[in-house]
Amino acid sequence: RKEVEQDPGPFNVPEGATVAFNCTYSNSASQSFFWYRQDCRKEPKLLMSVYSSGNEDGRFTAQLNRASQYISLLIRDSKLSDSATYLCVVNMEGNKLVFGAGTILRVKS
Amino acid sequence: DTEVTQTPKHLVMGMTNKKSLKCEQHMGHRAMYWYKQKAKKPPELMFVYSYEKLSINESVPSRFSPECPNSSLLNLHLHALQPEDSALYLCASSQERHSSTDTQYFGPGTRLTVL
């Protein structure tokens, strides 16, 4: 079993749609969780950290379910500029981040 | 300011060459990282420096040699690379607060091609 698993997609959605990505992780001792976005041939950029209580930043909402070892990202009112690869990232121990393979989102007009 | 800079942006080298990748941050971060990313794959951790000391080496071949001259700089020395080492090399840094919320910020990467 992979340490961090994501549906690779691609998710093809129209502008204005709501889309959700899921991610599962294998290590129950994992301490912190993040969503990064990566545009083609660019570096990963932090989108948001994920907390047990859930957190929201504008059109983006992240949720963490420790019991099920599951993380989600919801994007509302999708924009063309949201097209990217979304990486689920788990801090397994110390400074060690483990990346999921990424979910490709394509928003079309 | 969450800027991590890397030079060069692109590098083409032969298998007998010696070259170095450079990374710099001025955010006062005390942890710095090297990652390797192949096309259509996620980044893979190579090395971690914490307070200028190597703390993690993910069984990276010795043809890759990291160096941390000071708290702001991180180098990756390359020697006798193979064509399969061609990839995007990403540097990152974090505050190293030994807490679960320590966040890593990435530089733009160096795209390396080994001929």
Which SSEs are present, and which pair or pack?
The complex is a heterodimer of chains A (about 110) and B (about 120).
Chain A: E1 4-6, E2 11-14, E3 19-25, E4 32-38, E5 44-50, E6 55-57, E7 60-65, E8 70-75, E9 84-93, E10 96-99, E11 103-108
Parallel strand pairs in A: 2-11
Antiparallel strand pairs in A: 1-3, 3-8, 4-5, 4-9, 6-7, 7-8, 9-10, 9-11
Chain B: E1 4-7, E2 10-13, E3 18-25, E4 31-37, E5 44-50, E6 53-57, E7 64-70, E8 73-79, E9 87-94, E10 105-106, E11 110-114
Parallel strand pairs in B: 2-11
Antiparallel strand pairs in B: 1-3, 3-8, 4-5, 4-9, 5-6, 7-8, 9-10, 9-11
Any descriptors?
heterodimer, A: 109 residues, mainly beta, 11 strands, 0% helix, B: 115 residues, four-stranded antiparallel beta sheet, globular
Describe the structure.
The complex is a heterodimer of chains A (109) and B (115). Chain A is 0% helix and 58% strand. Chain A is an all-beta fold and 109 residues long. In chain A, strands 2, 4, 5, 9, 10 and 11 form a 6-stranded mixed beta sheet that branches. Chain A has a 5-stranded antiparallel beta sheet with strand order 1-3-8-7-6, with no helix packed on it. Chain B is built from no helices and 11 strands. Chain B has strands at residues 4-7, 10-13, 18-25, 31-37, 44-50, 53-57, 64-70, 73-79, 87-94, 105-106, 110-114. Chain B is globular and about 40 Å long. Chain A binds chain B through residues 31-32, 34, 41-46, 49, 87, 91, 94-97, 99-102, and chain B through 31, 33, 41-45, 48, 50, 55-56, 88, 90, 94, 96, 100-109, 111.
